[in-house]
Amino acid sequence: MFSANRLVSTLSWCPVLFIVAIFVGEAFSYLFIFCYKILWLYYAREWQSIVAGVFFALLWTLAFWSYIAAAFTPPGFPPEAWTYWARLRQEEAQKPMRSWAPGHMGWCHKCTDVRPERAHHCSVCGRCVMRMDHHCPWIGNCVGFTNHKFFLLLGLWGSLVCIYVVATSLSTFLVAFSDIGLLIKKAGVGLLWWSGFMLACIFAAAFGIALFILFVGHVIMVLQNFTSIEAGYPGKNPYNVGWRQNLEQLFGSPGFDWLVPIRPRRPLSDGTSFPTNSRSHPTSPNAMQIHPHPHPHANAHQGDDERPHAADTVIPMPTSEAWCDGSLSSSKGDRDGSPHARLGPGVDYAERETVDGSPVGASSEEGGVGVEGRRE
């Protein structure tokens, strides 16, 4: 949906329209064929038909709402104010790597720009996404910091409505499966309608199982505060600060909005920095480390025991308000209109390259500041 490539953005509508059609088909099959044609007209169970329809409508609405929110909410791209601040503060950005880097900004060699910790570049969207988990073709969107809550609620409400459909209509499905001809005569429902109802039950069972497995897997990851990308990182997870605080980073302070697909009413994180547990990472939860010289293993596959030492300088990461205050002055690259903002004296991060051709910053003659980056 939010791909930088117009063709990719257009094609992402195909699976979304397919899933929307499934939602609409399930609603029609359950409410019209099952509740009205079968329960109300054939069995004459008016109250049972009403109660079943109301509960289905409630679960279906929450599931469909969650799907729309997950598909049409931006996954969370680095704010321009944060990127502007980061360009001013940093004088060197190093080659990305796949390892934990708490408190350190990363470098994207595809965007040729800095990015917040835990952000990754999506090859489908062509952009960096904050706290990216994965790109989901079924929603035509990345699952990132901003819409991960909606993706989880889709798994919750989607699996519940599917289970509800199967549980309440299973007996009718089995009767129709064994002797559909008899039901056609007695219920006055044509073969086409019965076929649609049975197909809807099969879809509900299949999607219910898939969504439940997906939901459980993502809940486990969220409770331990790691993403699908970070699952393969070596060493101990520094972002695991307890299951409740882990949930609050995506859902905000506890409240009724935890179960509703809306933005957190009281958010506790902006997606650019995350608290860490003191046992894995002793620095402050809202801090970024920089060290006066590049770490000797900066371009290697690092573990937790290869982080910069405690003597490194700690510069607090600013809040969203601090990025936009008047205290931040533009750099030379910004003032003279150059397309590549300067990160420091004599350093143009967009023009530096490593031996293999990927862009990387380099220290100026006066001495640079090394920043750990990560590979996508």
From TrEMBL:
Q: Which residues cross the membrane?
A: 16-43, 50-72, 150-177, 189-216
Residue span(s) of domain Palmitoyltransferase DHHC: 106-230
What domain of life does the native source organism fall in? Answer: Eukaryota
Q: Quote the EC number.
A: 2.3.1.225
User: Which residue intervals are annotated with compositional bias (Polar residues) in the record?
Assistant: 270-287
A GO MF label: protein-cysteine S-palmitoyltransferase activity
Which segments show compositional bias classed as Gly residues?
367-376
Keyword terms? Acyltransferase, Membrane, Transferase, Transmembrane, Transmembrane helix
Chief site of localization: membrane
Protein location: Membrane
Q: Name one GO cellular component term.
A: membrane
- What membrane topology term does the record carry? Multi-pass membrane protein
State where composition is biased (Low complexity).
Answer: 357-366
* Region of interest: Disordered: 269-376
Q: Which reaction does it catalyse?
A: L-cysteinyl-[protein] + hexadecanoyl-CoA = S-hexadecanoyl-L-cysteinyl-[protein] + CoA
Question: EC class of this enzyme?
Answer: transferase
Q: What is known of its domains?
A: The DHHC domain is required for palmitoyltransferase activity.
This chain's protein is named Palmitoyltransferase
Specify the species.
Vitrella brassicaformis
Upper classification of the source organism reads: Eukaryota, Sar, Alveolata, Colpodellida, Vitrellaceae
